[in-house]
Write a structure and sequence with these properties.
homodimer; 233 residues; alpha/beta; Cobalt-precorrin-4 Transmethylase, domain 1; Methyltransferase, Cobalt-precorrin-4 Transmethylase, Domain 2; five-stranded parallel sheet; five-stranded mixed sheet; 7 helices; 10 strands; elongated
Chain lengths: 233, 233
């Protein structure tokens, strides 16, 4: 009988934000899998490090961050094949996922490859979205407010349309797009409503008005824009 | 010295989806606060029940679910006053919040009332959003896809515009709006892309194509629409 693949959300980075179910699954895992930046650290593994059994087998997927998709696809193909072999051998595999597995997470690529052939269970995790809101002490949305999640690399026109249509907008994957996003928000009269959050829940967490953020943002950064149409009182 | 108010996300309902930090804070709490439906159960308290110390003081806010806002506002005013008194007496207060405190959560109303006067810390939780995605085995968004969260009670025109603009749409607060939302999605050619999820992570969880859902949905239900513009491979 084949094993089960668990896609386990670890939350935004602070190991204390791992759920009890995720912690139990990782502690009991004989095989864990995780992505890492090619040649570098695995953020997912670092979050869960204290929970991984010393004798657990580790399947590491070195995923290059390139604009061309083919190298990453090849890394997920190879990882999926190794995981499939473990599942076929009867082992369960716990795949470690930063944040939530289905929210801009790399687990989606494994899910697409393996769910047609194996039993897959997904354990949701705390997303960077609400972790950033907590860090910024900023409610995201209430009652009938509309919230949109916008990847920063999108073109200006698309960003502008969504900025106008929603009550709350979260720009993810800010990184090198920060100056362009700030110019756009300024032109829309929304700079004062924009908060910048970097590395939420980690030791190096930083929160400030977007107006004060420097131009060179890391990949793990976010801009929160709440128009405050509803006074929440 | 005044105590600290903690707004603690409990996740979507399964107590195993409580984070380790939330669990520790609740176990150590001498005073807990939570909303309940006037005269009825508190869902938040039920999720955390096993963690609350037998001798903890409990501040219960009976919040009526009426279209008129005044009765709920009065309930939060009274709750905030009781919590403020405990904080002034030097006790920390742990406020139990379904899902995440800042994501369509009632904690926002306490935060607005108490953050100007007291130290408030928010502990993010797993949202119903990703819990429903996990239950439906449905990735939400990847790469540069745009995701919008839409409250079901919004008027048709607003819903339609957002349905067209985003790659993934999550309709929350479905309840009695289900027939109208289904008609709208059908007219937009999106019925086949729509999944219905009810009471995610609870014993009574149900997942099915929206086409097969019955007209009378409970409040804790959601419709997930993924256009699948990106093949995730």
């Amino acid at each position: 009988m084949s094993g089960t693949l668990y896609g386990v959300g670890l939350g935004p980075g602070d190991p204390e934000l791992i759920t009890r179910r995720a912690a139990r699954l990782i502690e009991a895992a004989r095989v864990v899998a995780y992505p890492s930046l090619a040649g570098g650290e695995s953020f997912a593994r670092a979050i869960a490090a204290d929970l991984i059994a010393p004798d657990a087998r580790e399947i590491r997927m070195d995923v290059p961050m390139t604009r061309d998709r083919a190298p990453a696809q090849a890394a997920y193909d190879a990882g999926a094949a190794e995981i499939a072999a473990a599942l076929e051998g009867g082992d369960d595999v716990v795949c470690l996922c930063e944040g939530d597995p289905f929210f801009y997470g790399s687990f989606m690529y494994l899910h697409a490859r393996l769910a047609p052939r194996f039993t897959v269970r997904t354990v949701p995790g705390v997303t960077s979205l609400t972790a950033c809101a907590a860090a910024a002490a900023m409610p995201l949305a209430a009652r009938n407010e509309v919230m949109t999640v916008l990847p920063g690399p999108l073109p200006d026109a698309a960003l502008r349309d969504h900025l106008r249509a929603a009550d709350t907008v979260i720009c993810m994957k800010v990184g090198r797009h920060l100056p362009r996003l700030r110019a756009l928000l300024t032109a829309e009269g929304l700079l004062d409503a924009a908060t910048y959050v970097e590395r939420a829940t980690l030791g190096a967490e930083r929160v400030m008005p977007l107006a004060e953020a420097s131009d060179d943002a890391p990949y793990f950064s976010m801009i929160l824009v709440a128009k405050g149409t509803d006074p929440w009182l």
